[in-house]
Amino acid sequence: MLDLxxxxxxxxxxxxxxxxxxxxxxxxxxxxxxxYVNPDYALLRPRALAAKLHVGxxxxxEPLADSPRAAAEFLFERLPSxxxxxxxxxxxxxxxxxxxxxxxxxxxxxxxxVIRRETGVRPLVYGxxxxxxxxxxxxxxxxxxxADYGPDDGRNHPVTAVPRPWRAFAAHxxxxxxxxxxxxxxxxxxxxxxxxxIEVPAA
Length: 203
Fold this sequence. Notes:
Blueprint: E1 2-4, H1 14-19, E2 25-32, E3 36-37, H2 39-50, E4 54-60, H3 68-76, E5 92-94, H4 102-119, E6 124-127, H5 129-134, E7 144-147, E8 171-178, E9 187-192, H6 195-198
Parallel strand pairs: 1-2, 2-4, 4-5, 5-6, 6-7, 7-8
Antiparallel strand pairs: 1-9, 2-3, 8-9
Helix pairs in contact: 3-4
């Protein structure tokens, strides 16, 4: 599974990524906090869908900067409505900005709860084992998208730790140095362990 931000540019051939690179899913950075909309999201989403990829949006959260509802609304106002099974991936919350704390965990949990009420699906929660565990989540606010690079040599490697309170991960981002056919330059790449926890359920 790919994930791309403006750092990766827009010169991608998703048809090649699908046919030669073996990719079936891509997350695109949609927003950051409540003040930035990534213009590449609107450009790349239809191109990826046309190449038969399932597409999702992720939010690079700025915890505690605004209310959980404001943060959630800023994201889901940019999402397709309704989310469609067989086409869309669940929204994803990128949790890595600022110091980790139980307060951040509670705030992220409320963002996830608002998104679930408004969209009908639980969002993925992305982050490193150390950061997420320091947030001391009372319960998992959504399926886990684990960032754990290890040697970061472009190859998948075993996960050594899953942060509490999760017991397993839905996806494992194992490198930011992958070379994928059709994608311009090195990119983030993840192994999907549980497609049902990544994709929007069929109606």
